[in-house]
Design a protein that fits this description.
Oligomer: single chain
Largest sheet: 7 strands, antiparallel
CATH superfamily of the largest domain: Jelly Rolls
Strand order of the largest sheet: 1-3-4-11-6-9-12
Radius of gyration: 23 Å
Number of domains: 3
CATH architecture of the largest domain: Sandwich
Structural class: alpha+beta
Helix content: 40-55%
């Protein structure tokens, strides 16, 4: 990962450096801010590779951004961008009548080489994440990809899948082998939303499976303490059949039941470490195990010792 912050530059030079070196040189955009406001400017970003894409997280004081025809000519990108707006929201504009606002937590998509303007809403400044996927790695007609102006993501059924996959990338969930299919799934989910990919096509179904599996795992984590957590419960929350739920986990390295048990064991192990005064029975039920005997049996099978022995081992080593 590469990270940079304006604290590395003298205060009087921070915005000029951000504008000329970071904005133009790294992002290919023109940054503008009134001179009297530049003394207090702050900006930071991180950049890391995920699969074939680049993932940027950026925070900065308020300023205006434009990617003009001249900027595009100087620094063509030929990539699909998926933006996640964080903080206080943002504004995008291009041709007259195409302006839109994007709320915190929401997404927008675009091709890099079309003009746009953007600015944060209010005084909170910029806080956003950008996934930049080279068009050469996106299996879709180049002409259609290159005609995607910035547009907010509005499909309420696809948005949770996009959010879950995006969060997986941000959190670094899994290995690099997991990153590439997630990047592809995000690209295809965005193109389904933009009407370029049919969700019933092979690529569309692949993206939906990746997104649903990601969201299913998050739903499991969210409902872990519930002893009634089941495939039927998660399938209902996802809006799919129980059979489809089991098919999702067939493409993973663990079944639904194994995924739930592993998550409960990790949760219980964390509680044993973080809350040494808490009763083991309380930890078992807080982790979703239906009985103390089931918890002991699963814990011993996974870690080769009883929960009490694990806790005692921690006390001795500590």
């Amino acid at each position: 990962m590469y990270s940079w912050c304006t604290d590395e530059v003298e205060p009087q030079d921070r915005f000029d450096y951000w504008r000329e070196v970071r904005s133009k040189g790294l992002f290919g955009v023109t940054a503008e801010l009134e001179r009297e406001q530049r003394a207090d400017f702050f900006g930071e970003f991180s950049l890391r590779r995920v699969g074939e894409a680049g993932l940027v997280e950026l925070r900065a004081s308020p300023y205006r951004v434009e990617r003009s025809e001249a900027d595009i000519a100087d620094a063509p990108g030929d990539s699909i961008c998926i933006y996640q707006q964080l903080g206080g929201g943002g504004w995008f504009g291009g041709l007259p009548g195409d302006d839109f606002a994007i709320a915190s937590g929401c997404f927008a998509t675009s091709h890099t080489d079309l003009p746009y303007r953007t600015a944060p809403l209010g005084n909170a400044g910029f806080h956003l994440r950008i996934l930049k996927i080279p068009a050469a790695h996106v299996p879709a007609p180049a002409r259609q990809l290159r005609s995607l102006p910035a547009k907010t993501f509005t499909d309420g059924t696809l948005a949770p899948l996009l959010t879950s996959c995006f969060t997986d990338l941000v959190e670094g969930t899994g290995t690099e082998d997991h990153a590439a299919p997630r990047v592809q799934a995000l690209a295809q989910l965005a193109l389904i939303e933009r009407g370029i990919v049919n969700q019933n096509s092979r690529r569309g179904q692949f993206a939906l499976r990746i997104g649903r599996l990601s969201l299913a795992r998050r739903l499991i984590a969210r409902h872990l303490p519930n002893p009634e957590l089941s495939p039927a419960m998660v399938a209902g929350l996802l809006g799919v059949s129980v059979r489809h739920m089991h098919m999702l986990f067939e493409m993973a390295d663990r079944t639904f039941s194994q995924t739930v048990t592993e998550a409960r064991l990790k949760h219980s192990r964390r509680l044993l470490i973080e809350a040494p005064e808490r009763l083991i029975a309380d930890i078992a039920f807080a982790s979703g195990f239906e009985s103390l005997a089931t918890f002991y049996r699963a814990f011993n099978s996974a870690f080769g010792m009883a929960p009490g022995d694990f806790r005692n081992q921690l006390a001795v080593s500590g």
